[in-house]
Batch of 3 targets.
Target 1
Amino acid sequence: MVSLTFYGGANEIGGNKILLEDKDARIYLDFGESFDFGTDYFYEYLQPRAANGLEVYFEFGLVPKVPCLYSKKMLERTGLKHKKPDIDAVFISHSHSDHVNHLRFLDESIPVYMGHGTHRLLEIYHKLYPQFCDIGEHENLHFFKSGEKIKVKHLVIEPIHVEHSIPGAYGFIVHTSKGPIVYTGDLRLHGPQSSMTQEFITKAAAAKPYLMLSEGTRMGDEEEHNESEADIEKKIGGIIEKSKGIVFAYFSMSNVDRFMSVYHAAMKNGRRLVIDPKFAYILDNLKDKIPGLPDVMTDPAILVYYRLAKSCTYDEKDYFIHERKFMPKMVTYKEVAEWQKGLVMHMSFNKLVELVYIQPHDADYIYSSSEHFLEGEENKEEREVLENWMKHFGVKFHKAHCSGHASAADIAEIVRKIKPQVLVPIHTQNAEAFKKLHADVRVPEAGKKMEV
Ligand SMILES: [Zn+2]
Ligand SMILES: [Zn+2]
């Protein structure tokens, strides 16, 4: 008998943590953290200390109290005795926190499998943001490539690359004693690497799976216009073309496709792109993994912005060691203020103070990230602060974004092509919408085991 237990990812977007059991084999598909993790009990500076252990998480039922899974250190004050783990492996689809963040709690000896790119990204983010990105210690970390076949007891797991809003994303075909189970991870079909998702669909269909775990982030948004990454590049290009001043753009630093769109749009309009040293560090450390990514150190169109720091003299000691490498490409607020019309500058919320030094005129700001920030009640205060800054400096505000997830229409197409016998919606708040796509949809319940 094969079973699936949903410790995360059931009727919620993200937090995937799915236990697959088949005879004596037990593996997890992802080990992430829900986006609303702990929000009922923690707020701003009231936060648990992950490094101390799981006691606070168990108290509120935030992490399942499952034996033979967590490390000795994490269990120290919890009342749950540390025992030899009974999990054979954890397979990670990609490096987003809702798929990896609870790896830090695992027993060190449990084998963890992830793509080469995923590991590189996690290393980069750990270096830059150790308090937010920490997967903990793992004695058996394995890296896979697309198309490899990994044996875990009698199971064979086949990772196949897919396109998502972060590089190094995979879906899996798990060959079980009952037949193949397909796990989509997070994917999309409307970006520049959609051929990877197409390859995943072809291989998954050829496996003739009896079950598919399908992401459904955008299910229920059937009306939503499905702009492609190419459309976004065009839109950004149009805004830059019309702008009479500096163009600020905000987008996630891990969204390499978006970086390329902004970079190309800037180039087409004869502008240079200004990024901060952290962004430069990310690009510099991904360039050997991602063909076509510009080299920060040699590309004359990329400039690196150093903010005024402690000494106010741009002394290298003012900056982290990993930020210093890019000093030959340095611009300061003085150059940016002078060259406004010739620049596109990456500008995140927490760097808005730089506007005081730059004193932009006729500037535009492109918000090119998840629109939840612009709509959600929970972001109201932050949004108002952003609006105040825009108003104060007379900056025109624009939106240009497309999702990292497949549209409802694309999910329908994926289901139709892969043709699983059973469809299990995950990573969605609209599991019911899947019933229009398939005759045998089984909706998972959080924490419950599903015999399949
Ligand atoms: Zn996700
Ligand atoms: Zn994701």
Target 2
Amino acid sequence: MLELDDIQSGVLRPRPAPYVATYIALRIDDARAGRELMKHISEAVTSAANPESPRADTWVSAALSYQGLKALCVPQESLNSFSWEFRQGMAAQAKDLGDVGESDPKNWEKPLGGPDVHVIIVAVSPDADQLEAAVARARKTYQQMTGIEAIWRQNCHALPNEKEPFGYRDGISHPAIEGSGIPGTNPHEQPLKAGEFVLGYADELGGVQKTTPEILGRNGTYVAFRKLHQRVADFRRFLKTNSNSSDDEELLAAKMMGRWRSGAPLALCPFHDDAQLGADPHRNNAFMFEEDDRAGLKTPGGSHIRRTNPRDASIAGFARIHRMIRRGTAYGPLLPEGILEDDGADRGLMFAFVGAHIGRQFEFVQSQWVNDGVFFGAGDDKDPVIGSNGSGGNFTVPRKPVRRRMQGIPNFVITRGGEYCFMPSLSALRWLANLQT
Ligand code: HEM
């Protein structure tokens, strides 16, 4: 069994809906103040065993970057026991992640990707007033601490019907995790070993990730935060230009995603949208690909959901070791329905990957499945929705008698910043608070 009372709830529990959220980045200028901050955080974070917040209105999660652990003067031996990718930081991995051109870290929003992002706190509340009250309480605490500086903040919110800014229902597919008691969303998927998502437990390959000392890593996990700007007007124009009617436009949007905007999967309703199916959590993720749709005539191999989770489809490799927990949340104003010109507003998704293996989970999916097509025989074709396509992306819609091949797909998603963090257990937060180095 997983020790749920020691694991931060943000790792395993989906959020309440609807909600508003805020991301706050802090810099630690003084190790002693940083440790005191860890003490306060350990008292404020919510455990996975008790999803009701101690303050009943706000869920708090906290994670540290490698630079953050260093700022707390964690001993070198312990620092070295964390994963290689985490120690490099996200900006150093830019080329592999497809963060090039406009998404290059040199164009990121400051201070993201720099050495000052030490702690990221995420607070989630059912409404804005409760969130602001909780942030004001927290601010009072850290403002009194010399040596802690708030350096960045991003407010987020759930859009109506859990949609993301391109208009698709999001947050549908999640893996089941052995020993968590929290069900997955696909009845055809065997639960994954806990070690895929939490350190200190056996994973799918039989390995157990440990740190020095063990208490620092056990019941913790890695989180990859990414601020992803979405070019909604460009996306809409692309759909319009490449379709003959609004029905056709919706079908193209569904082919690119693998789901209709309602969330209904093409695997279960390939010809027409079915809004009821899209909204039904018992049915909207109950499918596999191989037996029913090997050639991708329903769900194209190149669509976003089939790339990022090929399920049982024949691919080069073994899909189960690349699964991830996602916690995306929208930021910025909605672009009103029907508007096809960009209004200059910053909008998109604060994307958060949660998993025990940054390398073979997040980085692998981003580099091999999103930004390459070799794994399913599509050469260097990239994800048509989120791929780093420059201006020359390709996308194939398998059809009979002839497939449809689309070219010149631009970037619809730009990386504005991000960081690899470690989300410690509650006991590890207390260990950090009591460090004597
Ligand atoms: C702005 C960027 C993104 C948008 C708009 C987006 C949108 C979506 C939507 C609408 C779904 C279907 C709903 C669901 O299953 O929850 C989805 C699923 C998914 N996305 Fe994304 N996504 C984005 C970025 C990413 C990134 C960066 C990754 C990983 C590198 C990723 C991985 C996944 C995975 C694993 C699934 C679930 C697939 C499945 O199990 O069927 N997404 N995304």
Target 3
Amino acid sequence: MTSFSLRQVKLRPGEEHREAVDVELPAFEFGGQRYVAVPETVPAALVVNRANTGTVFSLAFATRLHGPCYRCLGDATLDLRIHGREYQAEQPDDEELTTPYLESNALDLSAWARDAIALALPDKILCRADCAGLCPFCGKSLNDEPHVHEAAAADSRWQALAALREAAPGGDAAQIG
Ligand SMILES: [Zn+2]
Ligand SMILES: [Zn+2]
């Protein structure tokens, strides 16, 4: 995993330090499935910006995730552009003003990148926006083989028949009247 030591970064208020870093992106779980970044190491731009009262860190990178589609379990990829920002106060009064990724003057870039990716994810990762998913009867992909089952078709015919029967007494009454 990638961490970045801030020991060499000596900044006065108003100064900034830019660094190109290669960040290793750990695999992660989402919706019970495993997703990996390909490639697992990405070039990122780290900016350390010293303000009067603290330090602003920003991390930007692009990544492509690979994993199963939420609906059909086929291969899905997702391109993301990540731009994370963290703030560490010089004398923090409360936890809000500290970053959890800073420890012993080193930034845990991999943990930060993983959390930033998690925040950027859509509700569902799909192979394509209109993925038809899996057939609820046989489990085959409806993308590869669009189909309807006899049983399902028969079911809907029975439902139509039942609806007619329910409507029938009213029809009779109309005839009598
Ligand atoms: Zn799919
Ligand atoms: Zn089927």
